[in-house]
Amino acid sequence: MGRQVIIIGGGASGMAAAIMAARQGAEVTILEHMDRVGKKILSTGNGKCNLTNLFLEKDCYHCSQPGFPMDVLECFGVKDALDFFEGLGIVTKNKNGYIYPNSEQASAVLDLLRLELSHLQVKIMTGCQILKQPCRKGRRFLIQSNYGDVLGDALILATGSKAAPVTGSDGSGYCLAESFGHRVITPLPALVQLRCAGKHFKQLSGVRCEAAVALVSGKKTLARSMGEVQLTDYGISGIPTFQVSRFASVALARKQAVRAILDFLPAKSKMETERFLTERAMQMPYLKTGDFLVGVLHKKLSAVLLKLSGIPAEQMVAKTPKSAWSRLADQIKSFEAEVTATNSFEQAQVCCGGVDTRDVMPETLESRLVPGLYLTGELLDVDGICGGYNLQWAWSSGCLAGIYAGGGCFVH
Ligand SMILES: Cc1cc2nc3c(=O)[nH]c(=O)nc-3n(C[C@H](O)[C@H](O)[C@H](O)COP(=O)(O)OP(=O)(O)OC[C@H]3O[C@@H](n4cnc5c(N)ncnc54)[C@H](O)[C@@H]3O)c2cc1C
């Protein structure tokens, strides 16, 4: 009989681990508490699944032990993940470095993972509830479930985080890891919308525009990002908001005040913006100020910025003093809002925090505390920025854990 590998959690990293462990000749069982595996994969990349990204560097990941993610990714990187997917039969599409399945269907990725699991005769137990904390029985692991007792020579915890719990990742994996003595850094929502104070947001709801977002706490800039920002009735969303959101989560959890500063003309400096407005005023003195920014910024946004600058919409541009353009430039370049909260785990794409990586070996993802126990994916204290980095993390950590749990060894 081959080595028996049990995997709790049939998400991205759990399925990758199962495939790799089975390829080493192990007998693999996935215990999944949902009615099917891989639910989260279906919602990735707006249903298109951004599998990975060709431009991957240290700054793409956050972890309390900053070198840990790259140590893992050096063992199993983007090229290895692409080979893995080619082996499954996925033809990929490269969109400026962002990698998708050629069909642009997340379901295709899940289908091919499931077909390979079936081909390798991996046993999948869906609707499986873990009744007691898993424990050691001699050198083996005992997992008591509603299906009965399951024994394994190696155990992989691939239960994900607390983000998007509707897909199955309800945070129960943290307790499983803690029961083996692992430290857990409080998980918080990341890649998530920010809720802001201010009555203007109702009026701004629905505006999408290019902007730079800076998060500031006291005098310190926590993070910056640029791209298409979405203004909503409660605050800000869109990719640049997501990219900085983890810093807001952490600061707010520490009870620090956080402000978001939006720059709606990031291509121009403050001085250039002021000059641009002054010249525009000379060019179009016949306009009412309410129409002054038509063609420059979204109409709803212009109305709010003019109001905040104290410029009445009915006033003629010709009658507007130069100092008003300076105030308007200030508002355009640094529209400020107090961040009161992030949206909840339900809306978050990932979590920051998780199992402390000091307790895990980066080359194999094996626990430093419990030999034969492996931890993968988002369960760990690693979060990537938007752009395929979180799935890459799931593939890298899952594949390595599967190989080593299955008794193999990985050489590029
Ligand atoms: C809307 C959305 C879009 C995203 N888009 C992208 C994208 O395009 N690109 C990208 O790189 N990343 C994306 N992500 C993030 C990415 O999907 C995750 O980082 C990745 O799926 C994490 O993999 P995982 O295996 O760690 O966890 P998950 O995929 O969450 O899998 C965990 C599995 O464990 C199961 N489980 C949990 N607890 C238990 C238990 N106690 N017993 C049994 N089973 C359990 C869960 O049901 C689940 O099936 C997106 C996330 C969301 C929510």
Low-confidence regions? none
How would you sum up the global shape? Answer: elongated
List the ions, cofactors and other small molecules found in this model: flavin-adenine dinucleotide
| Quaternary state of the chains | single chain
- Give the averaged pLDDT, no decimals: 97
Q: Taking Cα atoms only, what radius of gyration do you get, to the nearest Å?
A: 25 Å
The major pleated sheet works out as: 6 strands, antiparallel, barrel
Q: How much strand content do the residues show?
A: 25-35%
Name the CATH homologous superfamily of the largest domain: FAD/NAD(P)-binding domain
Number of domains: 2
* CATH topology assignment of the largest domain: FAD/NAD(P)-binding domain
What would you say this structure looks like, in words?
With 412 residues, the chain is of the alpha+beta class. The protein has 2 domains: 4-188 and 351-405, FAD/NAD(P)-binding domain (3-Layer(bba) Sandwich); 193-343, no CATH class. The protein is built from 12 helices and 21 strands. The longest helix has 17 residues, at 389-405. Flavin-adenine dinucleotide is lined by residues 8-14, 31-34, 39-40, 43-45, 49-50, 130, 158-160, 163-164, 167-170, 172-173, 349-350, 377-379, 388-391, 394.
Helix and strand layout, with pairings?
Layout: E1 4-8, H1 12-23, E2 27-31, H2 39-43, E3 52-53, E4 61-62, H3 68-75, H4 78-88, E5 92-95, E6 98-101, H5 106-119, E7 123-125, E8 135-137, E9 140-145, E10 148-152, E11 154-157, H6 172-179, E12 184-190, E13 194-196, H7 200-204, E14 208-217, E15 220-231, E16 235-237, H8 239-253, E17 258-263, H9 270-283, H10 299-308, H11 322-333, E18 335-342, E19 350-355, E20 373-375, E21 383-384, H12 389-405
Parallel strand pairs: 1-2, 1-11, 2-7, 11-20
Antiparallel strand pairs: 3-6, 4-21, 5-6, 8-9, 9-10, 12-19, 13-16, 13-18, 14-15, 14-17, 15-16, 17-18
